[in-house]
Amino acid sequence: MNFIKHQIGIVTIGFFLACIGSVSGQESIATDRPDQTECPSIVPKGMFQIESGFQYEFDKSDTSRIQNITYNTSLIKYGLSEYAEFRLIVEYIGCNSIYKRETSVHEREASFSPVAIGMKLRICEESGLIPKTSLICHVDLPAFKCPENQVNTFVPRYRFTMSHTLSDKSSLSYNIGSEWNAVTTIPTHIYTLTLGRSLSEKWGMYIEGYGFITKNQPADHRFDGGFTYLVTNDCQLDISGGFGLTPAAPDSFIGVGCSWRFKK
């Protein structure tokens, strides 16, 4: 139950900061969660934004049952200008439990993922058929590592993130990009496609298809959807869930999170 207490604590802090740091006249918070499609919007200059969440994945085969729990993933942003934001990613992944029917082995692990830093750079605003577009680049840092998830070199990843306004209440967003790991130089290519809909001034929803494609490996395609609730212009709650479309993907997954922004 520790992870539940941890998430409650994070949400409480988020509410507090959102309330005391609310900025009148600013547009509503735009986040990169809960979907996998990163948004092209830049955090307003001089503001911090924290997007934090919990995720549970379940996968079952003829010989094993695997549960992957991300106790906390936190994306911390800071607006440098109207064209750029600084980004820091910290994740604590734990309780990877494997149950093997033949041997009844039960394994548990918990560790931090390598810390990643990066930037989001605005490329252009939406104009006709041209989408609103930004470029996101990150690197995993070798100086920040733990025994379970070591990286001995800088590991890059990037995405182009784009969005179209379909109507006053609907939008279409998509990403394309690639990422590498510390073991192989073969890139994993990423795609996402999201249809978002505003249900009211507070509620929003989305459906999404996305996947990961690596040469000489089975493709990992998934589908998910979720809801967001705007507590204030500077604080948003979310819940999401989905399932795998191919054998390489997990059978199902769910997540909850809180995002908030405040002045330094």
TrEMBL record:
Pfam family name, one: Phenol_MetA_deg
Taxonomy, superkingdom: Bacteria
InterPro entries per record: FApF
Official protein name in the record: Transporter
Annotated organism of origin: Xanthocytophaga flava
